[in-house]
Each structure stands twice: as structure tokens, then as C-alpha cells.
């Protein structure tokens, strides 16, 4: 999956170079500092976390490794609603990102013409305003009695979402809908950019050929464009789903205690309640669950060359 | 009928523009509310027009201090991650070595891991080592997660480079150092710049990993997070608007310069 975030190469890659004789150790010296950094501050912490999750003890008396696997069971049985919620919210946000992001990526790739660069800048530029400030802006947009909520009310959208349990009463803020809306907004660029990259590589003549063979526009999209954009769809969904499943900012700022996700639990266990074994176990379960889901998804979508 | 046809033909454009609106709406709100004069402590409801916040951007206790800490951390994290990441990228493209697969997955995994998992595990490491949480632990964490993005950006550029250019330099009796400084580095520069820019943006805006490993140090995102609980000063919107404008201006001016260069060449 190392191609996930890669920009398209500027020119075709050159032929394989002949192996060098001189300086056999050079690559190892080049790798050493960076790889050491990643081992010490990325891989090693994972091991520490695994060991912390099977420790027992208290903050005052210190923790000891006792292979107390029951922590995992307790964590799961106590926090399974938050786990389910994380997966559900992240999945909903990912689907919404795909539905919203595809037309924009398509627009930039095929229909924007000389506006292409400008639209591209407008997609990326919000990144430079702190995402917390932008998420707080949704509090204003979705405020009780504001224009958005009013419009949704007049169009009877809120009746439907109330019936589905996504909103309650006349409010959007502090409901699952607000959290999903915030997640979708925050990770939309991560969907648009890979989609655009793979759409832009499609040869325009394929569309013409399909049209010449009497395919209707919708058929061209369904049989030609969409299948060819699959690499972008797969990396886009991964880049959206993974961070969304671990997020706790949107659930905290836009949600309520009923919308807490697993990230919120890990954060409060680690930083407020200071129950390190439970926090470590939860974080480990989240990591394992995401790895399993991602592997299955990549197998199913048949783009294993991504890995 | 013609309207329906027009709608059919431009459906994708309309849908795309709606998405663009969705993406930009919060920035519009942030900008508009930077001219607000809120009644209470929170700046979520429009009251009246005022330029007070723009006249006194540092008028909130602690905010500009946190901004300066964030800029320092982003600066040093960018330098650290760019140097280390560029070295790895060159090693990956230019040399054969053992354990290439392991190196590749060690670079890929931080990008595929939810931030909260990395943040929590790094905190367990720092707690176990008894490290003092603060500026240095934040910097270490930022270099760690920015590194992979630099590797990806630089690798893409170096891979598309013609190796014959370096061979030519060597044939013309350039020393390895001269070849690197005069030929390799200038060609790889756009990739390195892209990686550095990405690092700076990621580090400056990072909240989750910083939240876990900051101790009592307050970066700008941490300040915003805290103010969401205590009360949001209008000055936050001033900073947000300024950042957006500076980013757009930088990109636009770089595009103008790029256009001029290509025209000169042509």
C-alpha cells in the first residue's frame, strides 16, 4: 500500500541501474537515523503498550506484568457500544465522503478546464486553517434554530432522521448526525485527492470509444470510468475510514455523551482516569480491528497490489 | 425540456460545486465571525460587526504564546523529518539492501495507524522511561509521524529522475559531493519541498498526538481545544482567517512564478 499517498511520477521511471560496487554500507548509513527513530518512537511504543495492557496494579504502587488478559474482556464488555459506534460513524462518514467527493474529483479531472488549479487550491487550502477552528465553525452552522436546522425542519428531513435515531427533536447539534457531518467534512479532502489522482490518469479516449459504441453516459461511467478509478476509491476509503474510526475530536465538540466513540474512551482513560492497562487494551483492540477490516477490505476489492 | 437536458448535462458539475461549498462553508463562517462582537464567552452566535479582534490579535492571554510554540515545533519537526525522510528516500530508490520489505512497512504503518493509537502507545513509552512531557516529547512525536510523508513525497520525485544526468556529471569529473550538490539535489528539490511543506502543515495542525504527549505545554491547537471548553475568543478566528489567506496567497504566487518560468523557457 506504499502507493497510497504517492503523487503521480513526473516522468516514467528509468531502467534499473547497475548495482554499485563502491560504498556498500552507504544505504545503511542513510537509513540508520530515520529507521532508528521509527523503531524507538513507533515500533517500541507498540510493544510497551502491549505489555501495559496485560499489567495490573495501581498508580500509587506501580504496575507489574501479570498476564492479566481479563483486561481485554472487561474493556470489550464495558465499551462495546463505543466500538460499534466508532465503526458505524466512520463507515457512514466514508460513504458520504465517497458520494460527495466523487463528483468533485470528477469535476476537477474532466470538466474544470482552466479552473482546475483554482478548484484544487480551494480543496487543499482549508487544510491550513486549524481543523479544530473549522470544526468549531460547525457549531455555528448547525446551531439550534439556525438557518440549516430550520431548512431541514421545513423539508421534513428532521422527521426522517428523528425516526432513524440520528437526531432528536429540533436539534442537530449533539446528535449522531452532527458527528457524522463533522467527520465527513474533516476527512473529505483525503477522499478527493486519491480519487482525483486515479481519475486524472484515465485516458479520455476510452470515454470516446465507449460513446462511439453507443454506450449511454451512465453506462460509460458504470462500465468504464468507475472500474478504472477503483484504486482511488480503495485508497480514499482507507484514508477516510482509518482516521475517522480513531477520531475523538468531532464526537467531543459536536456530539454529546451519547455519541462517545472509542477514541473518546481511550483519551479519557489515558489522560483523566489514568487507568493505563484498560486504555492500552482498548487502543490495541482498535488497532487490531482496523488492521483486520482493512485486510479483508483490500482482499475483497481485489486491489492487492496496493499493499 | 431544455432545462432538464441542461440539468442532466451539468449534474456532475452542480454536485461537485455543492461539495466544494460544503468544504468551504466553515472557512466562510470562521472569517465572518472574526468580525463578530459576541455577548457571552462563546463566539458561536452573530451579534454585531466589530474589528476589535483584528486590531488586537494577541489580546487573549496565552494565545500568541501557544502560536509561537506551535511555529517553533513545526519548524524543527519539519527540518528533522525532512532530513531523515530524504535520506531514507534516497536509500530506497538508489540502493539495494537487505530488509527492504521491513523498511517499507515501517514507513507505511505510521500513515495507516489511527492517530489515537500512536499517541497512546508513545505516551506509554514516555511514562515508562519517566520522560518529562513537554516541548521535546511533542517534537519527537511530530518528527515520527511526519517522516513517512516526507519519504513518500521525495521517493516519488527521485524515482522519476533520470540517472544518466548523474552519470554524465561523474563522467565530467565531478566529485560525488559536487554531483550531489549541483545535480541530484536541485532535481530532487521539488519533492523535498513538497515533503517539507506537508510536514509543516501536519505538525502545526496536529492535535491528537500532541494532546497525549504535551504535558502542560500548550500548542495552538491545544489552546483552541481548551477554549472550546472555557470560551472561544474572537481572536482564534482572526488567526484562522489569516492562516487561510496566507496559504492561498502563497500557492497563488508560486503558481504565477511557475507560469512565468515556463513562459520564459518557451
UniProtKB/TrEMBL annotation, chain B:
Listed CDD domains: TM_PBP2 (cd06261)
UniProt cross-references to PROSITE patterns, sorted A to Z: ABC_TM1
Membrane protein topology class: Multi-pass membrane protein
Subcellular location: Cell membrane
Principal location: membrane
Transmembrane stretches, start-end: 12-35, 73-93, 105-127, 133-154, 180-202, 234-257
Entry superkingdom: Bacteria
Domain ABC transmembrane type-1: 67-257
Gene3D superfamilies associated with the record: MetI-like
Keyword terms, alphabetized: Cell membrane, Membrane, Transmembrane, Transmembrane helix, Transport
SUPFAM superfamilies: MetI-like
PANTHER family on file: PUTRESCINE TRANSPORT SYSTEM PERMEASE PROTEIN POTI
Family, as annotated: Belongs to the binding-protein-dependent transport system permease family. CysTW subfamily.
Record's protein name: ABC transporter permease
Amino acid at each position: 500500500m506504499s502507493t497510497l499517498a504517492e503523487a503521480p511520477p513526473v516522468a516514467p521511471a528509468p531502467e534499473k541501474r547497475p548495482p554499485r560496487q563502491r560504498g556498500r554500507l552507504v544505504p545503511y548509513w542513510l537509513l540508520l537515523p530515520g529507521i532508528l527513530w521509527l523503531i524507538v518512537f513507533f515500533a517500541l511504543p507498540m510493544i510497551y503498550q502491549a505489555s501495559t495492557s496485560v499489567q495490573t496494579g495501581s498508580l500509587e504502587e506501580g504496575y507489574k506484568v501479570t498476564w492479566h488478559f481479563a483486561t481485554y474482556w472487561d474493556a470489550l464488555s464495558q465499551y462495546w457500544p463505543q466500538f460499534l459506534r466508532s465503526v458505524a460513524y466512520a463507515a457512514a462518514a466514508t460513504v458520504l465522503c465517497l458520494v460527495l467527493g466523487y463528483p468533485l474529483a470528477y469535476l476537477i479531472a474532466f470538466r474544470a478546464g482552466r479552473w482546475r488549479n483554482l478548484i484544487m487550491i480551494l480543496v487543499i487550502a482549508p487544510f491550513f486553517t486549524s481543523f479544530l477552528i473549522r470544526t468549531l465553525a460547525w457549531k455555528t452552522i448547525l446551531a439550534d434554530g439556525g438557518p440549516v436546522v430550520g431548512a431541514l425542519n421545513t423539508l421534513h428531513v428532521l422527521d426522517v432522521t428523528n425516526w432513524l435515531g440520528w437526531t432528536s427533536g429540533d436539534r442537530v447539534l449533539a446528535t449522531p448526525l452532527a458527528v457524522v457531518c463533522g467527520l465527513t467534512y474533516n476527512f473529505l479532502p483525503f477522499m478527493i485527492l486519491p480519487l482525483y489522482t486515479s481519475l486524472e490518469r484515465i485516458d479520455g479516449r476510452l470515454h470516446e470509444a465507449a460513446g462511439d459504441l453507443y454506450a449511454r453516459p451512465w453506462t460509460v461511467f458504470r462500465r468504464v470510468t468507475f472500474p478504472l478509478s477503483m484504486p482511488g476509491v480503495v485508497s480514499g476509503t482507507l484514508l477516510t475510514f482509518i482516521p475517522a474510526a480513531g477520531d475523538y475530536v468531532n464526537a467531543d465538540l459536536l456530539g454529546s455523551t451519547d455519541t462517545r466513540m472509542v477514541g473518546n474512551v481511550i483519551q479519557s482513560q489515558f489522560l483523566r482516569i489514568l487507568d493505563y492497562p484498560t486504555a492500552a487494551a482498548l487502543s490495541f483492540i482498535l488497532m487490531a480491528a482496523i488492521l483486520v477490516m482493512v485486510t479483508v477490505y483490500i482482499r475483497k476489492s481485489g486491489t492487492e497490489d496496493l499493499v | 425540456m431544455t432545462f432538464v437536458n441542461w440539468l442532466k448535462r451539468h449534474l456532475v458539475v452542480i454536485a461537485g460545486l455543492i461539495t466544494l461549498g460544503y468544504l468551504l462553508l466553515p472557512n466562510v463562517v470562521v472569517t465572518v465571525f472574526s468580525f463578530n462582537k459576541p455577548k457571552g464567552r462563546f463566539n458561536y452566535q452573530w451579534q454585531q460587526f466589530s474589528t476589535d479582534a483584528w486590531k488586537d490579535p494577541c489580546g487573549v492571554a496565552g494565545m500568541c504564546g501557544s502560536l509561537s510554540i506551535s511555529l517553533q515545533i513545526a519548524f524543527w519537526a519539519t527540518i528533522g523529518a525532512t532530513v531523515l525522510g530524504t535520506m531514507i528516500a534516497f536509500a530506497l530508490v538508489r540502493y539495494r539492501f537487505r530488509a527492504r520489505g521491513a523498511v517499507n512497512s515501517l514507513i507505511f504503518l505510521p500513515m495507516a495507524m489511527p492517530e489515537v493509537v500512536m499517541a497512546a502507545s508513545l505516551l506509554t513509552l514516555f511514562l515508562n522511561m519517566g520522560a518529562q512531557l513537554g516541548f521535546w516529547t511533542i517534537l519527537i512525536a511530530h518528527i515520527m509521524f511526519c517522516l513517512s510523508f516526507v519519504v513518500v513525497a521525495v521517493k516519488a520525485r527521485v524515482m522519476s529522475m533520470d540517472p544518466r544526468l548523474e552519470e554524465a556529471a561523474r563522467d565530467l569529473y565531478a566529485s560525488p559531493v559536487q554531483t550531489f550538490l549541483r545535480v541530484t539535489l536541485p532535481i530532487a528539490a521539488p519533492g523535498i519541498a513538497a515533503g517539507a511543506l506537508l510536514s509543516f502543515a501536519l505538525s502545526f495542525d496536529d492535535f491528537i498526538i500532541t494532546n497525549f504527549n504535551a504535558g502542560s505545554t500548550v500548542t495552538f491547537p491545544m489552546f483552541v481545544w481548551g477554549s472550546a471548553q472555557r470560551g472561544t475568543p474572537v481572536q482564534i478566528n482572526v488567526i484562522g482567517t489569516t492562516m487561510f489567506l496566507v496559504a492561498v496567497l502563497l500557492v497563488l504566487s508560486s503558481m504565477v512564478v511557475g507560469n512565468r518560468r515556463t513562459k520564459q523557457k518557451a
